[in-house]
């Protein structure tokens, strides 16, 4: 791990360097720029879809994706290069369509909304007087009351650093998934607070980090160490003691002559790219000027994960550039050639363990190839023919490595594959023979058809010598038999999508395979059981499959109409419906998978969640319910708002699930008969049990109870904690409000105790929501306004009258 020469600095100079790094936000504003004022809007297809920097070197705005020109990325890019390299982006995981807009509002809010008006990105800044793109490529938001930026893109990097940018302790770069997919990828460059700069592979989609594959080795060098890409083009780790450790050993390129960027590429290589500003400095294209690590193929070696390339593939270093290439073994092919990290799969049927197939397979040799961590058996002092024989007679053996008289047997999937010139062994890949005369196994379709044909020919020969009538009968039988066989063999081809919607129709077999036979149950409820699955081998495509039972609508048309209504709802606080299965007796819905589980498990865990996160979740739920009631094309009453039906995505954003399913449930299993006041009175509005009209106000009631649970981090019914008033959360909260003891609701919650004005506001809103009389409950629009503090919350009716009326 040669890091280049170290250059000691004086203490005073070190302090000055650190001060300059910390104050880059202040110095950035001294550069030339053009203010983007309040009220400015950018749209993907509008006359104004980007802002240039004063020099024109950079631009900020909407960029159409190379992989799909109808999708747009909000990004910053080099505007004078070809190609125009993107150096920062806001919505990599969620590109938007035409009709989206970026707005700096009159009150200083700065945010991106999609074509439906849903917020996609927000830097969390208010009161911004103006925005500007500096000549350094740094986008800043500034308040007139402060000389330093409220927010800047340099402080929120994605995969790239630019000259003048510093990666502070605790910050990181994250690679893209592929060159064309801007979602978070498989590698991370982390400036650790212990002073060590480290490259890690990560597990997708959970994001946990595996063992490092490169590091500066500067652990305990000081918590103030930082990665600096200075304005002159030098990239180094500035240690607390004043030492500078160069990251690339290829020297420094002048920023006067070259555009530069340091990018953590999708292949895991941290790469310095340079682009000559004039032809006199060389061909004007992006060139690799330095890579770390020098050879990622051999750098990564982990017990978990696939390595530098995908499973069953192997990595080859591409000469002096240091960039890797991923290849498949003979008779294997990429699962997806556009996403090679998914790995390779055999292009033949693997050897069966149920019958002897040794004559149907052979070996293809690959010199200098190894998968070093996939061994499960070793034979010593053997020759290559014996090694092949041992693997051929073992149905689990897919590859064997023969090296200096040793034979290593390996089974799929293979990980950490690499080609190394110094490796003395040969990989022997077991593949199916391509001999078309290979006998068909007994019971196979081809063998059965061949036998049937022989039988028909024999019978036909006998009948042809008989009467004409028998011949006619024989021909008719053959025709009917052929038609039936054709009908039985024709594959069922389900429609791939619901007309007019971005929703897929699955076969039951596809979902059975995707869920591994419905083996991993996530939960169950009134509507059926939910299972986790994956549509492909890509770990980024987790899904949740809900098996519906006891349906009211058995008619296909009615079922499809109801599901189509659900599928037309799109909001950031709703779980998205991806597809369905409507095959025979099977009715299944396929949703996006929420990695952080339910609100129930989040709230009632051993450790109390942060207060600020809880308030954001409460507002997210309210916005989702408002959308269902008033904003979607066909208004929906959820009828079952409770923590189990509130899921949390990767960023702990609240997402409501199971909306619209009440219409699909059989009448004999509806809430009206299935729910008792004692069992779920914490969520069910009183009108359910009075034969009163059911309106959207039942959801308002349920939201009020969930809001109290979010405030208190306790369940609506907590047995064994005291008398009935204390056991039932709604009773207890009303008593605490009446007696002026709201502190009891958030006891031992220091964050909430420090924010009692918000606690009081939230509790008052909740009490309004759980009024027995539906007409007294506010609309969800009013609820949101009160929660946000946009309107005052009037004192709710006397809680004592409420309690006595429902007891």
Characterise this structure:
This protein has 807 residues and is α+β, with helices and mostly antiparallel strands. It has 6 domains: 1-24 and 158-294, Bulb-type lectin domain (Agglutinin, subunit A, Orthogonal Prism), CATH 2.90.10; 30-146, Bulb-type lectin domain (Agglutinin, subunit A, Orthogonal Prism); 314-432, Hepatocyte Growth Factor (3-Layer(bba) Sandwich); 451-489; 504-592, Phosphorylase Kinase, domain 1 (2-Layer Sandwich), CATH 3.30.200; 599-806, Transferase(Phosphotransferase), domain 1 (Orthogonal Bundle), CATH 1.10.510. The protein contains 19 helices and 43 strands. Strands 36-40-41-39-38-37 form a 6-stranded mixed beta sheet, with helices on both faces. Strands 29-35-32-33-31 form a 5-stranded antiparallel beta sheet, covered by helices on one side. The chain has a 4-stranded antiparallel beta sheet with strand order 1-10-11-12, with no helix packed on it. Strand 42 (646-648) and strand 43 (654-656) form a beta hairpin. Helix 10 runs antiparallel to helix 18 (780-788). It is globular, with a radius of gyration of 32 Å. The N and C termini lie far apart (73 Å). The model is unreliable at 1-30, 436-496, 665-680 and 802-807 (pLDDT under 50). It is an enzyme of class 2 (transferase). This is Receptor-like serine/threonine-protein kinase. Its EC number is 2.7.11.1. Keywords: ATP-binding, Disulfide bond, EGF-like domain, Glycoprotein, Kinase, Lectin, Membrane, Nucleotide-binding, Receptor, Serine/threonine-protein kinase, Signal, Transferase, Transmembrane, Transmembrane helix. Residues 36-154, 158-285 form the Bulb-type lectin domain.
